[in-house]
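I would like you to sit down with the pair of lines that follows and say whether tokens and residues agree.
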Amino acid sequence: MRKKWIVSLDDYRLASRKHLPKMISDYLEGGALDETTMRANEDRLNALMLRQRSLVDVSDVDTSTTVLGHSLALPLMVAPMGMLTIFHPGSDPAVARAAVGAGSIFIHSAWAGCSLEEVARVAPNNLWAQIAFWKDPAETASYVKRARAVGVETLVVAGDVGSSSKRERDLHHGLSMPPRPPVLDYFNAATRPGWLWGWLTGRKMTYGNYEIDGRPLRMNEMNSWMASNKNPGATWDQFAKLRSEWSGNLVIKGIMDAEDAARAVDEGADGIFVSNHGGRQFDSQPATIDVLPSIVEAVGGRAEVYLDGGIRRGHDVAKAVALGARAALAGRPFAYALATGGEPAVDHAFAILQEELKGAMGFVGKTSVAALDTTIFANNNHAYAREGVLVE
């Protein structure tokens, strides 16, 4: 159940800390190395000030839009997140049902704790599937076949996972696969009886998108499976091959460079997903909002552009759309809500963001998502869109 005092996504972040053991909340909140990029995602969005307009008729503000021909109630989708099972037994299906109720789309992670088929049963028309290019092409092909079988029309290629980096919060807690936490973390977990009960009696924590001998991959088998299947040698050749075999929509996630964005469109991408993995993979790179204008320019309208990273308020969504994104995506905020109160809390998180977006649109004098453009920015910082830098 959601708490009455929760009125923002940050309230859910704080509340989730009371529900999760510290090793799990650190896993959720943490980023790579010094977490510079993770912080920059929010800081750079917050630095963009908006221009208030007066005496504009905002009695009918419409937040609806479309992505790849699919109608959305607001320009916001759920970014792919692995292992939601460790936050709440409701896991991916709970967040997916909330996305359906909000008129949004849920992107199922290639590293999810439950299967694509289970999520497809609760969100058959609001589901995109993230895929990875595994070392064994047959593994990738099998997953594409599964996606096709459950009616998925849009695949999201993980393009930013060839390399990985340290998440030092996790290392301090011994969060490997299987986990080896220090004794203090066992005591801390014991102070979270609700989480412990869910862990002991609820959904089993598996790496549920993949199987060994017809059963979901167990968490203690994850390291060896990943070591055998991770493919740092994936290239544009695999993307081109997938494009030739997949008749549906194809989106590539992890684009942070205009040259890569142009290449992706040339190779047949229908969507460009600007993402730095929430700062969890590669530290000391720009915030996503910083690179968005140059990527939009490079794409030149030949594909849709989406953005995640630092989306915490409705006005963040408006800023992303104004700078050329078709829609924004959020990950951690929905995980905070899930951890705090399951599916009803995720419903509430969507409602918060939609109301905040409506309010922001009203203040900047825009009554439709299509009308959001760089004129909403104050103090000449709409020059951001032209020059790719923020004019302070």
Q: What stands out?
A: The chain has one domain: 9-387. The radius of gyration is 20 Å. Confidence is low (pLDDT under 50) at residues 385-392. The domain at 9-387 is CATH 3.20.20.70 (TIM Barrel).
